[in-house]
Amino acid sequence: MAKNTVRWGADVGCQTKVKPLELPNDLADHGLKGKRAKGELGISRQMTRKDAKADAQDGLPVSEAITQDQWSEREQMIAERAEEVRRGLGTWMSTASASVRNYIADYTPIDIHPDQLREAIKSEENEYRHYETDDTADAKETHSAAIIELQQFRARHGDRIGDRTPDIKKNVEQAIAILVFIMILEGGFNALLFKDAQANGLIGGMMIAFGVSAVNVCLGVIAGFFGLRYALNSPNIVKRVIGGTVATVCIAAGILLNFFVAHFRDAVETGLHSTDAEAGLGTFSLFSISPSEVFVSMFPNVFSLDSFIALGLLFMGLTVFGLAIYEGYDRISDRYPGYGRVWRKERKAYERRQAVRNAVRDDLSDYFTSCRQWFETQQSRHVAAKREIEKAMNLLDARRDFAIAIASRAADQERSLKVAYRQAHRRARNANRDRLGDQAACPAYFDEIVTPQLPSYDLAKEREQAQAAMKTIDNNITALNICREWLEQHIQQVQQGLSSIEKKVVEEIGKVREAKQSKGDTHVPVDQARRA
């Protein structure tokens, strides 16, 4: 469920990574190529003087007006060239200023308000919690019911259980494996003892031995699991009587079985020796011995065994029978009937509740990690945006200085060319005064040359926009720091709240046990167990 980014941050702060400002437009895009891009007008001063002399010889007067439409053709060409440079620089600067304004607008984040941001974080956090509300409630109810059942079981069994807990690491598979092992061990031992007493050898002995061993183990397990467990530990009188009956019958049957097998093996060996003495060993069969006769011969002295092999067989059988009783009594499940079941039920319910709680904790941890990453990203992006806006303004100032330098160079050339033109024009008119007469009057030309005006390149609008953007960024950084401090405190509160659930459960169970020990009461009220 965890996302890489938080939804509430989709429209807050800087949404994209801050990139440096790029101004790809070149002077050539605005008509300034070659030398003209450096402020060179490309007009020869010598040709300008030549044109001035020709104009003077033709009697063209030098205008006393300062308007451009009254200038000579050469002067107008000079002014047009200089104006082209200034106009190209103006459009070059205007496009750069527009790019800077757009850049500032793109990387000026909206205002971040701490109160609104905290509410948005809590709202999305509640959505993360909400989808697991049903699972949490169900796990809590299941665990509570399991605790009640466990406490009531302990109350019914009284002091016999006390603080004892079953070994939940025991499992049926392990007990069954042990039983199978001892059954195979007994079967193999019996097979070795029976192989010489019948014609089929070891294979035939194994078939008989494993059959007897399986019955022996099954009787022991039944006597321990269904007999002794209920007879010794069940609080119900009826179950104790039934368990005692089952245990008595199964134990008696197991003992008789082992004594019968030992006497049968003794009878087989006796018959084997008798047949061997009569030289009829080839006709001897294990199945020729009557089991009823062997059973009758057991009494009244069941310990009357002549063969050492029969004694070993009896000892082995009784040992396996005792181990099977112990396995059934204490190893397959807890010795108190039902205790292992309710304990494992409570443990599984607790583990499920812990799994749900851990799932909530993991999702919240991922969510809070995303929140932290968002704050770190926003702080770095705000600082980067502020720095890049300052760099954009510095770049714009540098462009303005560069444009003013080019325009100043073109203006100097414009003035010098006009001065050269009018000086040459005056000298030529003075030289041709006799021929031109009154038309040869030459005014004071320096008063007529107006110094070209340089472009203003006012960046006040861009500076105001940049200052407003940086003020917004500073306010947002302050708001981010405030919200981040709140987030860290909030995360600690959430973690403490999740951890306190575990502590409360342990405390309530401890209170139940203390009350039980202090009062000596074997009954635990349902309300008290439910509170645990």
Q: In a nutshell, what does this entry contain?
A:
Keywords: Membrane, Transmembrane, Transmembrane helix. With about 525 residues, the chain is mainly alpha-helical.
How would you portray this structure in words?
This protein is mainly α. Helices cover about 70% and strands about 0% of the residues. It has 13 helices and no strands. Helix 7 (about 235-275) packs antiparallel against helix 9 (about 310-330) and helix 10 packs antiparallel against helix 12. The two termini are about 30 Å apart. Residues about 280-285, about 445 and about 530 have low confidence and may be disordered.
Layout of strands and helices, then pairs:
Layout: H1 45-57, H2 73-106, H3 114-130, H4 133-157, H5 172-194, H6 201-233, H7 237-277, H8 291-297, H9 308-331, H10 339-431, H11 433-436, H12 460-519, H13 526-531
Estimated share of beta-strand residues: under 5%
Number of strands: 0
Count of alpha and pi helical runs: 13
The helix-strand sequence is HHHHHHHHHHHHH
Radius of gyration: 55 Å
Span between N and C termini? 32 Å
The poorly predicted ranges are 280-284, 443-447, 528-532
Q: Please state the overall shape, judged from the principal axes of the Cα atoms.
A: rod-shaped
Helical percentage: over 70%
Whole-number mean pLDDT: 76
Key traits:
disordered C terminus, rod-shaped, mainly alpha
